[in-house]
Amino acid sequence: MKPTENEMEMAIVAAEAIRESGADEHHVARTLLYLYQRLQVLEQVHAAAEHYLHFGQEEPRHAELVLAIEAARKTEQRESGSGEEDPELG
Fold this sequence. Notes:
Blueprint: H1 5-21, H2 28-54, H3 59-80
Helix pairs in contact: 1-2, 2-3
């Protein structure tokens, strides 16, 4: 079940506190924070794709979608420590 905005905010605050305390032995807080950050990036890709499809696949919307996908790819590379580039997008 999807958490409310308030529940999500409370969970993120708690995860940050747990991470800072060093008491995250099962990496639950670290994982939640990573997934929350990833969700934010992928929601930008989703919004750009929706705009692209809804507004007739115009060139500015295509560029917006490409930039959002590239930002998501770069975030993933940074987080995973990978320096590889995807030839399909690069």
